[in-house]
Amino acid sequence: MANQEETFDAVIVGAGFAGLYMLHRLRNLGLSAVVFEQGDNVGGTWYWNRYPGARCDAESLAYSFSFSEQLEQDWAWSERYATQPEILAYAEHVADRFDLRRDIRFDCRVESAVFDEVANRWQVSSERGDRISAQFCIMATGCLSVPQRPDIAGLDDFAGDLHQASLWPHEGVDFTNKRVGVIGTGSSAIQAIPVIAEQAGNLTVFQRTPNFSVPAVNGVLDPQWVAQFKANYRAHRANHKQGLGQGFGDLEIEPKEQGPVAMAGAELTDAQLQAVLESYWQTGGARFMGAVGDAIVSEETNRAFADFVHAKIRATVNDPAVAEVLCPQNHPIGSKRICVDSDYYKTYNRANVQLVDVAASPIQKITATGVQVDGDVHELDVLVLATGFDAMTGALLRMDIRGVAGVTLADKWAAGPVSYLGLTVAGFPNLFTITGPGSPSVLSNMLVSIEQHVDWLADCIAHMQSQQLARIEAADTAQSQWVAHVNEIANATLFPKGGSWYLGANVAGKPRVFMPYAGGVGAYREFCDAVAQDDYRGFEFA
Ligand code: NAP
């Protein structure tokens, strides 16, 4: 029997960082809100992705909330790149510190959200029978939250232990003396492989497409350095939010204007370019791609970056044939999300690690005992799938979302996602997508983008409350112009050449549209602020 309908000002879907902060902001505005979360705890991506070696690839002191100075001063990050357990502990701390759990319903997946045009309210239903009426429906469902299981014949026949990196068992997996296989060589696998190799009896990596990876140069943070950094926290935060790049943070005590050393690789001599790249390589981290301003724009600069990394791979991996298989040749560096690793390439020098090139010879099937390639079965006790996600739109389209005239979001997005600012969709009034397609989202430090969206939304909702407005909706023309702008920026870069999940290319039948906004978090924030200041230009209110 269906439950009785409950009434709230807002429903928030997801209790990751976006959902937590949204709840906090709405409460402070005096609104009633309820959060639905399919897991049994907060943390979102950091709740699910517990594979060995899982850690963030943004600097810890940047990948954290800035809204509470007390919180940022009190919380002590232990490493330059925080581990999954530490980030999950932080999410739990935030939930407890701001007393958020009492408005979160765990183990509760939202099934549908239907807009009632007469009442200007969303009717939201959960799988377990909750029925909510709310003026606002806020999707804080994450960009990488729907695991992509590969379509490989025989997967269910495997008699050993089968694990998906993004649905890792809470009790962990013991690889001791086991024959382990990993399918996939994206960010998740590149973090997991060195750790699994240390423990496993034998590890076989099945690689279809090699990825570029740069060293993390991770390490324990020096408390004295942290204290100095935190003394300048406001200026650092301003840099992350308004800088030229994507807000990933840096290691400078004195915040400096974040920007590339040279706008174009062509401005440098070859020796200068090599020196710059070497310096970024030694410092470590994804900011390698920002060593020169046009790395993701100029084919020539990009090739120089790729050649540099190829040389590093060849210098690190002892077996030249293995090194060649590890050198990505089919996409510009950075056009697929750059990976950040600890000892990834070195791992292939271990006697207990083999690389199988399944681009040359695709996986034929999974058998009860292993993975069959080219007629040979690689015998395994444990098989790990690190095969990625139905990114950015997956979580939204799994729900039955219906807007004006009963149009479904799935129909609206049949040819790829369209949005205004990556925050709203025309025809879906009072519905918001935090870090949705069309916003910097996955190209940026997610915490920076989450805070920016939540703050913008909270201000917008406060504006509606003060003006007693019942409904906000993106105008079609504003949406079309925004989509054109997002495409124009993407098409001026090498991103669309990557064949990556940014484009939906990893999911069969998914439309190929470059989904994130590639213009940087600073420019994006400026645009959103200008929209608000200009009386919410591009929106229609009722
Ligand atoms: P991913 O980058 O999409 O990688 C999936 C891998 O699985 C690819 O190597 C893919 O090969 C392979 N694969 C998929 N289906 C296959 C099949 N049928 N046969 C053989 N190989 C197959 O996924 P991910 O590693 O989970 O990373 C996704 C994103 O999550 C990252 O790009 C990053 O944004 C985020 N992430 C971040 C961190 C971090 O903060 N450090 C860590 C993990 C993930 P193809 O390329 O040939 O399709």
Would you give an account of this structure?
Helix content is 30%, strand content 17%. It has 15 helices and 20 strands. The chain has helices at residues 17-28, 45-48, 69-74, 84-97, 187-199, 223-231, 233-242, 270-283, 299-316, 320-326, 394-397, 409-412, 446-466, 476-491, 521-533; strands at residues 5-13, 33-36, 104-105, 110-116, 121-126, 131-139, 161-164, 179-183, 202-207, 213-215, 339-341, 353-357, 363-366, 370-373, 376-379, 382-385, 400-402, 431-433, 472-474, 539-541. The strands form five sheets. Strands 1, 2, 3, 4, 5, 6, 17 and 18 form an eight-stranded mixed sheet that branches. A five-stranded parallel sheet has the order 7-16-8-9-12, covered by helices on one side. The chain has a three-stranded antiparallel sheet with strand order 13-14-15, with no helix packed on it. Helix 1 runs parallel beside helix 13 (446-466). The relative contact order is 0.14. Bound molecules: NADP nicotinamide-adenine-dinucleotide phosphate. Residues 56-57, 144, 150, 152, 183-189, 191, 206, 208-209, 337, 340, 358, 363, 386-389, 442, 501, 506 line the site of NADP nicotinamide-adenine-dinucleotide phosphate.
Bound molecules: NADP nicotinamide-adenine-dinucleotide phosphate
Q: How far apart, in Å, are the first and last alpha carbons?
A: 35 Å
Rounded mean pLDDT is 96
Number of domains: 3
Shape descriptor: globular
**Any low-confidence stretches, pLDDT <50, length ≥5?**
none
- The CATH class designation of the largest domain is Alpha Beta
DSSP summary, beta strand count: 20
Report the radius of gyration as a whole number of Å. Answer: 23 Å
